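BUG: 3D viewer hangs when loading the predicted structure for this chain

Environment: internal workstation, default settings.
Expected: structure renders.
Actual: progress bar stalls at 90%.

Input used:
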Amino acid sequence: MASSHCFAPFVFLLILVGCSGRPFYPLPSKLADGDRQPLQTSRPYNIAHRGSNGEIPEETAAAYMRAIEEGADFIETDILSSKDGVLICFHDVTLDDTTDVAEHKEFSNRKRTYEVQGDNTTGFFTVDFTLEELKSLRVKQRYPFRDQQYNGKYTIITFEEFISIALDAPRVVGIYPEIKNPVLINQHVKWADGKRFEDRFVGTLKKYGYKGSYMSKDWLKQPAFIQSFAPTSLIYVSNLTDLPKIFLIDDITIPTQDTNQSYWEITSDAYLDFIKDYVVGIGPWKDTVVPVVNNYLQTPTDLVSRAHAHDLQVHPYTYRNENSFLHFNFHQDPYAEYDYWINEIGVDGLFTDFTGSLHNYQEWSSFKESDDKNASNLLHKIASMVSSYGRA
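C-alpha cells produced before the viewer hung:
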C-alpha cells in the first residue's frame, strides 16, 4: 500500500495556496477503475479520524490528503449543515474551538444558546452561518500541544469537496461520513423541498455514485460506511441506501442522541440482535470496550466477542499518539497500543488521528509469503559468503 509519488507534490501545492482567494480542490478522478490499487480488506481498516488531524487541523482538505498520502483505507468526516442548507465537514456544532470566528467582529452578534443533546450550549453555531460566511473563516488546530504552523491556512470544506478528494486519490480510498447531530440540524435547517438532513446526506452520496452493500462490487469500487450516534437516523437511511452503516456508541454515562437509551441497553444482546438488521457494525469509544482506572487498563469487557457473535464489526475510536492519551500499560508507545487492540482485542478497524503511525505499524507487522521467500534467499546468500571464508 505504498503511496503514489505523484500525489505528494499536490499536497505541497495545496499548502502553498492555502490562503489564496478561491478553493483549490481536485475534481473526481477520470482514471479507469482498473488503474487504481483496490481497497485492502485483509486486515483491520485504517480510518483517518477527521483526516490526519494529529498533524494538520481537522476536517480540512489538507488533513484528508495527508491521510491518503500516509496510507488511510478510509477518510472519516463529520457532516453538519450551513444555514443555507449546504452540507459541510465539521465536527462541533459550534465554531468556537477550531476556527477564528471570535476574531471576526462582523459576526459578534451571532452567538446563540441552543439545547444540544439535553444540555444548553452557547457559541457560534454552524446553522447560523451561510456557506459563504463559513468559507470566510479559517480553521485551527484543536489541541495546543499539536503543530500550530497550519493555523489560519485552510477553510471549512463541503461534503462534496470531501468526496472529490477521495475520488481523486491515486488508489481506491473509502469515505466514512457521520450524520452529525441530526436532531439539532433538523430543528434549525429547513430545505425548500421539505427533505430532512438525512435525505440530503444520502442524496449527496448517490449523486457521486456511492451505493452497494458491504463487499459488493459497487461498494468495493467506491467504499463508504455511514455512521451515526443516532439510531433512528441509521434506521431511516437504511430505507434510502444499502450502503453499510455503523452505530456509534459513546461513554457509558451518555444516552443516545435521539432515543435517550442508556449504554447498557444499546450494548445488550437483545439490542445488538435488533440493530444488526440495519447496521454492519458498531463504533464504540475504546474505553468502554476496555475500562480504564487511573489511566490503567482493566479487564476487557465481552463487547467485541458479543458483537462478533452477532456478525457485527467493531471499529473503536480514537487512537492518538500523544502521551496524554496513551494509557500507562503501553509505556508511551502507540505501536504497543495498536498491537494490543488488533491482536488481543481483535477489532476490525481503528479510528486514528495519526494515520501514518497505524499504517507503518501494520506494514511492519505484516508477514507475507514473499517476505519469507526473500528472507530465506538472503540467509542462503549469507551462508554462502561465510562458507567461502571457511574454505580459504
